[in-house]
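Lab meeting, action items carried over

1. Structure of the two-component assembly. Owner: GW. Status: complete.
Input record:
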Amino acid sequence: GQNIDQPTEMTATEGAIVQINCTYQTSGFNGLFWYQQHAGEAPTFLSYNVLDGLEEKGRFSSFLSRSKGYSYLLLKELQMKDSASYLCAVKNSNYQLIWGAGTKLIIKP
Amino acid sequence: DAMVIQNPRYQVTQFGKPVTLSCSQTLNHNVMYWYQQKSSQAPKLLFHYYDKDFNNEADTPDNFQSRRPNTSFCFLDIRSPGLGDAAMYLCATSRGNSGSDEQYFGPGTRLTVT
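Predicted assembly:
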C-alpha cells in the first residue's frame, strides 16, 4: 500500500523553530508537497520538492531525501498565525497525490 | 484575482435528500478535483476531470456523481446523503497533472446531514 506518516500534533513556542517530519512509501515518486490548512479552511500551497536537498522560502524551508523517503518542513520565528495543520502529500508514479493526515501545530505564547 | 470559488460555504441537507455543491474557477486550469475531508483526516479524492475526461476513484461510492459542463464549472451531486457523508468538500484545480503542478483549493463547503 501507499502511505504518508506525520506526527498527529506538535506544540511549539512563539519565536522558536519547529521541524515537522514526513515519511512516505509510495509507488514511485514525482514530487512532494507541503500544504498549510487553518481550521475550517482550505489547504494552501507552501512548497514543492522533487530533488534532494533544502528549499528555503522566507521563514519556511522544506527538505527532501528521496533515498530515505523522508521530508521535513522547518518553520522559523514562529508566529501565532502559524497555528494550523501542515499536510504532506506525495505524487506517485501515476501522478496521483497521496495525502498525509496532517500535523496539527499549536503555538503557545 | 484568479481563484477557486465554492458555493455554498455551508450546506445543510436532510438524510436522503439530493444535494449539489458547486465549484467555479477563473484560473483556466485543465484539471478539477473533488475531495472529501473529515475532521483531522487526510483529504480523500473522490474524482477528477482532466478537461472533459472523467476519472473516478475506485472506492468512491456510486452515491457521488460529478459534472463538468465547461472549463470553469464543476458540480458534485450527492444523490442520497447519509449521516456518514457529513464532511468538508473541497474543490481544487491544477494546470495539469505533471509532478510540479500544484493544486489550488477553494474555501470548501461544509455539509451537514440531519
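2. GW to write a short summary for the group page. Key points so far: The mean pLDDT of chain B is 94. The two ends of chain B are 36 Å apart (CA to CA).
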